[in-house]
Structure prediction request, 1405 residues.
Amino acid sequence: MGLKSRAVMVAGAGIAGIQAALDLAEMGIKVHLVEESPSIGGRMPQLDKTFPTNDCSMCILSPKMSESVRHPNIKIYTTTTIDSVSGIPGDFTAKIVERAKYIDQEKCVSCGLCEEKCPVKVDDIFDMKLRKRGAVSRYFLQSIPSEYTIDPHNCLYLNKGVCRLCEKVCPAGAINFDDKDKIFEINVGAIILSGGIDSYDPIHLGNFGYRRYKNVVTSLEFERMLSASGPLGGHVVRPGDHKEPKSLAFIQCVGSRDENINHNYCSSACCMFAIKEAMIAKEHIKDLESTVFYMDIRAFGKDFDKYYEKSKDKYGVEYIKSKVSDISEDDDGNLILKYVYENGDISHKQFDMAVLAVGLQPRKSIVNLSKSLNFKLNEFGFCRSDTNLPLATTREGIFVCGAMNGPKDIPESVTAASGAAAETLKFLRLERQDISAEKDAVQEKDVAGDRPRIGAFVCHCGINIAGVVDVKDVAEHARHLPNVEYAEDLIYACSQDCMNTIKERIKEYDLNRIVVAACTPRTHEPLFRETITEAGLNPYLFEMANIRDQCSWAHMNEPWLATVKSKDLMSMGVAKARELKPLKRLPIEINPKAMVIGGGLAGMTTAISLAEAGHEVYLIEKENELGGNLRNIFFDFDSDPQVLLADTISKAESNELIHIYKNAIIKKIDGFVGNFSTTVTGNNKNEEISFDHGVVIIATGADEHVTEEYLYGRSDRIVSQVELEDILKTRKFPGTRKPKNVVMIQCVGSREEGKMYCSRVCCTKAVKNAGVLKNILPNVNIYIIYRDIRTYGFREKHYSELRDKGAMFIHYTPENKPIVELVNEKDTDSQVKVTVFDPIVNKNIEIQADMLVLATAIDAKKENIDLVKMLKVSLNTDGMFLEAHVKLRPVDFATDGIFVAGLAHCPKDCDESITQAKAAASRALTFLNKKAILAEGTICEVNDSRCTGCGYCVHICAYNAIELDPEKGTARVNDALCKGCGACVASCRCGALDLRGFTNGQMFGVFDSLEMTNVIDE
Amino acid sequence: MLQELKDTVKKLISEKKVDIVIGWKRGTLPGSASPLFIQTQEDADELIFDSTCRNNLTAYLTKDKRKMSKDYKKTGIIVKGCDARSVVLYAVENQVKRENIFLIGVPCEGVYEKKKIRAAVDGKEILGIKKSGNAVTITGRDFEIAVPDKDVLSDSCIYCRYPDALEYDVFIGEPRKEVDVKDEFAAVKEFEKKTSEERWEYIKSEYSKCIRCYACRNVCPSCYCNECFVDQNNPQWIGKTPEMTDSIIFHLIRNLHTAGRCVDCGSCVSACPAEIDLRIMSKKVEKEIKERFDYTAGLDINEKPVMATFCEHEKQDFIMS
Amino acid sequence: MKEWEPKILALLCNWCSYAGADLAGVSRMQYPANVRVIRIPCSGRVDPLFIMKTLQSGYDGLFVSG
Prediction:
């Protein structure tokens, strides 16, 4: 294999692409992040809220977007498509085409004047055509990059040769109609596909009247309606008459689970999506009725069922298990839904609006992409990947993540993205990165002991600020503030020549603190910090006053008040700057080894991934053999789990970088990210082994629930699904004759009070085992008694196949559970009588079963609590490990350097465990692949003489960054773990803690300056 | 009971189980008590325990410079209900090691508020104070009157729910068990009924009396910071003169600093020379903590500090979402 | 004389609310100019004293968001 390039192309910059790029970049790999649309972000920016926490989607995404645009190892190409890929794995050459943007991205200041004046109005794609935008526009408000682009299909000048209005109004002279498409040839060793999916267009399903009836919208359109930054400003109204709807119908499975359109798969996310929208809509409109029409509610993810229950109990969302056959409209635009219950009964109900839960489908472009990159698609047109290799395409060197190879929700996409990054690193093999090699260009000036000499600069931002605020007046005001040595107004503070001016003034006036009143520090602080560093100042001797985004743009009609406010913001900025101190980011050494706790499928997979990336791993297994729960699984649809098990064990055992400790008990774990030290006892209980490592991965698995329900344990004819696997393998059925009737009961111990979660795998397992049973005994009658069949994703196919084979599915509710009795208990041919209410025939039916199979829940391990104590991580209410963020940090903990994978996190299937195991490896590698990491500059510090050691801060810190010094009894901050939130500082009565960069002194300085602010003389 | 107390202390000293016992002795002024530091058997003879034993002596524990020293033995201390709760607080907040403290628990019938006693005799000079039954006899040069206890007990004691030391190594006397207090937050509830203007006027009128002597802080068992925020320079948290707004800030921040930590011993009220109604705000905070987190300070030595703990089910009605 | 208007101070978390205030500006949402914003790293940084100081300095209201 010719490994010529160690760069990677990530194709598609949605959340999956962004995550994959960030992980790779942190491992030290150069990433070309290629995106077709004008902004990175993908689908997430279109979402208002995310389930199951109702976090604002944009709020959680934007830090990751900013991080990727700032990362020195990531190069972003937007409006860019892949033309072709040549070469061989390890040495690809990708030809990519960046469409002409017609706006000089260096000059554009994103003021939006061009769009305001653009005479063309076209449908806004981002806002689902619910609003118009100009032919020159920004993709969405928080786009990254934030610059505007011209849409060549709609621009008057580019099509008809007249207009050029934007050119006239642009204050920055950024419009460039001579711009051409740019072609780049990039050499990459590997490619990650993260191109995402499209949603199904319900125009093809005439019965729902989409586009014919104005008040029928798709779930994504409705999401934009709910969004506060969306076209309706978050005020939900009917598109037809702009009246507030009083009733909403959510129609599930539109374009999913539908064989007629070759969508015989479940889109996996739409149930939760609808539950969320039904709830959020009720928050928007008082007394709104939300009704969901569904076949099965598939709330199979972590904490999803609690969310579903909450929607019923707390929000009063109604759920009707039925199939909507069609929608008609009355003269007032109201919709009449016709729906069919399971038993064939037909009903009608009127609603003000209907939301179609449109399914997910592959993007059209995937067909050409698969040809030019030479990878295969599956039967539904998604990228094909194998159950045991869920992140690989059919082509070597090309990996896949996100929803491109099957419907996924956000955390699954993020997990897959990290997993794909680990696979890529393994493929490329890269040495550990040495951060000390970073250049220290300019000698930093020592300002200790010097009085503050502040330079204040006020930016016009063309007319963005100066058009509203009297910037000369603000500069004059600044000039008279205490400690200000110099003040000046600048046309574009962020332009290269103004940056040079600032540098010159620093030298000329011997300035040692700089305040810039301009746009937002969120985007421009890094730039200005870099500038003052070049002039020899510590980057932290800088402060910004936000007089554009939070002033001139927000008070456009009150120029005088905006000027008063700008002066105040300048005063406050100067007050803080006076107290600023230089800060350093100190390196923290990282031990390159890892410890993986748990030798099941997830643990072994993580260990192998890390070892194959060149890292030593200590793999700790409590039992005397590896394999965990996989040892009890004998059947799968397309592969043999026992082959997977044997392969994985042999890979783990044969890799000399993996040190396996069986029968091992962890006695002690000390330390923190990069510097852990652990003691275990192995086979010989008296012998203690200690080793150092840089990270910890928790993969301790879960237990099968032992039920007391349904007479389990009273007869060998009543077994669990896991026990059934063993029976199917040995073909030793209970009793003397082969079973004729087999009953399966689902949700035994799941989705109930006290254990309100779905065990996720049991529906698929029942379908799978029923299929195997049918193969062995073609005449057997199988009855599956279920609450919701949750065969999400491509598993749906197997469910419908089993139905076609004649298996009976009977729906039950927890209020009306099936009743199990033993008949002829003493007899060798005893039977199990199952009585259940069958909603299809609307009465109780009795089944004389030869076997009763219980789908018992997956339980969290009780021993988890030991690790919680040792590592100070958290569990959720179900006893499963609680990740740092359920959406965007699904394998991390809040404490750096500790990760989770497999069943320890929540119930999941083998392929999902493999993916998550690789994701955990990837996140670990972002640390392990560096010799050292840099601590933040803005972190907490302790004044020992003030500290009483009361320990409040220790309890308060969410990152376990504080402990009490055993000698001195005072608090001690771990620089590596502190995230600089300052919660401890606020909790400290003694004033012993302080947060660098936001010290009490700095804050008080600002507060003291307040007295002179907001004073308006009439 | 007093004899038993003395015997116990003497035994502890003689057996060298502790190297010091802190208790009370008769004070110089009639009806007052002073701290007594007992290091010898003879010292113990000075011991008293009655309704004049006002001070919460546990404040000395945190000021003990030897507490971190390796050859530190044990300190014995006589504790009423509120005092014992302070020790629990110290243990929770790592200020003492519980095993280093020998707690001699006593039942408390409440302590007299000297301001109330003075008021009962219209400020006349008092020569003697004697408790008899549920009343106190106050004698002066030309008078002798009996006042019912309830008129002269400290407010903290009238509403005290935990008069017995709940945490102790030895308990002397007959426990009073949990007493039935009608409504310890009655005054707060009355206060809450006022309009915000009325409340603000009250706060202003009370705290503007403050002369910033910090006696309240100095006697407070929960105020053990090495350097109180009001004394800190660089940065200076608040102005140091008795300017009204600074005084209000001082008191309200002190209320917040003692939130979930105040054991309502009443020491601050007793110490205040300006007779500020300090208890209204401390009780208000206590009520909030009780209602929001179902927590009372100093009851459970194994419970984490309430203000340093977050539970998902806690009320978050102050957050708009 | 104009109607009385309160002076408001906002303490905004850098990661969410401060970004939200930026977004309001980017969207050209107009709101009264009598609010001053202080950027903080997390709403957890807010010491009770900050609130008192704000009121002491003559502000009428305080908005903590994060």
